[in-house]
Amino acid sequence: MTNKQAKNEKPPDIQPKMHARRTQSRIPNYSLVSFVAFLCFLALLFVLIVNAEKLSRFGLLQQVYYLVLVLMSLSAAGFLFGVLQSSADWVGEAWGGTLRLSGSIVGAALVVIGGYYFIPKPTFFPLTVYVRGEGGPQDIVLRNTGKVFLKLGAEINPEGIEENGQAVFPRIPAEFRGQQVPGWVESEDYEASTPTVTIAGSDVDLIVKKKIKHFTLAGTVLDIHGKPLPEVHVILPEYKKEFTTKSDGRFEFQVTADREKSADLTAEKHAYQTIRLSPTLGDSGVTFSLKVVNNAPR
To answer: Which has the closest alpha carbon to 154: 133, 182, 112?
Structure first.
């Protein structure tokens, strides 16, 4: 009996050695997981760096940064706790009870939390200003023409308007986030509907409207001999305006319009031929030459 028991008994150091072999056999698996996670981390970090402006414009920068931290935490946890056989414990209060975490979850959590906590606060951020008409988001009235101006403190910052009606400001100081600042456009035909814009996020709409312009339309009514004609009725029907000339034959209209364009203008006087012209708003040298009608009724 004693000999049989002696044969079946194993030396006391065999169990720890077997456990060590099993642990060592798992190290290549941890190394592979850590390496793959690290490669994914590098790829996503490259995407984040290259497309930071676009991601910020669509409000996705924080979400992608979170994914970068998760992949980095997986790589760190796999290497530290799988390959190097490190250990970590954390005990804290949560939801009215005691929460105890140990192993790789602690390392992963520290990487994610530390990544958010120690990230430096940005001093600048990109801002896209979309110039829109009063018809809504699809009302793109300015393409590759004009400029947008933002007054940030004492500094005035201009940026050109691009194909889709957007002006990109790459470096807005962080202290202006959420602030209302003066903003306007430089354009021949449009002006900002309001004098300020609120920088609430990475993009903002700047609504514009047609400029209201003031034009002078003036001239002289003469007879065929070049003498001024008084008592001539000069009519501007589109704007419902009339003017009666005096002894100098002069007439003048003040017109409000959104752009410079031609307008129908009529001059009529009893016993004289009625003349119609189409001068351009802003023309101050219009001349009517009226001829006497011989058979005009008296």
So the answer is: 182
Contact (CB, 8 A) for 253 and 241: yes
Q: Which tens digit of pLDDT belongs to each residue from 186-204?
A: 998 899 999 999 998 889 9
Residue identified by tokens 């003066």 is 182
Q: Model pTM? A: 0.49
Residues pairing with 129 in the sheet: 167, 204
- Report whether CATH 2.40.128.110 matches the domain 213-290: no
Asked if residues 83 and 28 have their Cβ atoms less than 8 Å apart, the reply is: no
The domain defined by 124-210 carries CATH number 1.25.40.20: no
Q: Are 101 and 109 in contact (CB under 8 A)?
A: yes
pLDDT tens-place string over residues 73-120: 777 666 665 655 555 555 656 556 555 555 555 555 666 666 656 565
Domains in the chain: boundaries:
17-117, 124-210, 213-290
